[in-house]
Specification:
This protein is mainly alpha-helical. It contains eight helices and two strands.
Length: 175
């Protein structure tokens, strides 16, 4: 397989599956920095001097991935050339995470086994005793799940995961 084919496959996967936007015009560090500057200035409705942009890059670029990701998500304060602070944001997290939520729903997370499955019971009591009926129904459900309160919620969840594993192996479940 040629390098060009590998690159094309990688780009297609990132744009189709991960919903990244491909910018073929960004081919080197200078183009990347120019694009970042344009996006930053648009997002924060500001124009930076070359010295201010240099300080911004110093603030953002880090060898520590965790620190860099925190810097990108949190509001930052950049000192302007005249000494005034500029409260700025580096990533439009509202639009970014909204797009990701549409791409990956809770249903996908359940199918991928990244979250525990859940079950919703709909119970609509009527009459003057309705609030007490709801409480009784919740306690009865809780008692059934926790083996008459022998387990707490965490233990019950662990037992449920363990039993699911046992079922996969074709073995009998525990309590």
């Amino acid at each position: 397989m040629l390098e060009q084919e590998i690159e094309t496959q990688l780009i297609r996967r990132q744009t189709d599956d991960l919903k990244y936007v491909y910018h073929p015009e960004i081919r080197d560090l200078a183009a990347l920095e120019a694009n970042f500057r344009i996006r930053f200035e648009e997002l924060n409705c500001v124009r930076l001097s070359d010295a201010e942009f240099s300080r911004l890059l110093d603030m953002v670029v880090s060898g520590d991935v965790y620190r860099a990701s925190c810097t990108l998500r949190e509001r930052q304060t950049l000192e302007r050339d005249d000494g005034t602070p500029l409260i700025c944001t580096l990533v439009n997290t509202k639009d970014f995470f909204q797009r990701l939520l549409h791409a990956y729903t809770i249903t996908n997370a359940i199918e991928d086994r990244n979250v525990l499955r859940f079950h919703a019971d709909y119970f609509r009591p009527e009459g003057a005793d309705a609030p007490r009926a709801v409480v009784r129904a919740i306690l009865a459900k809780h008692d059934g799940i926790t083996a008459e309160r022998k387990f707490d919620a965490r233990s019950a969840a662990a037992t449920a995961r363990h039993n699911a594993f046992l079922r996969e192996l074709g073995l009998p479940e525990i309590g």
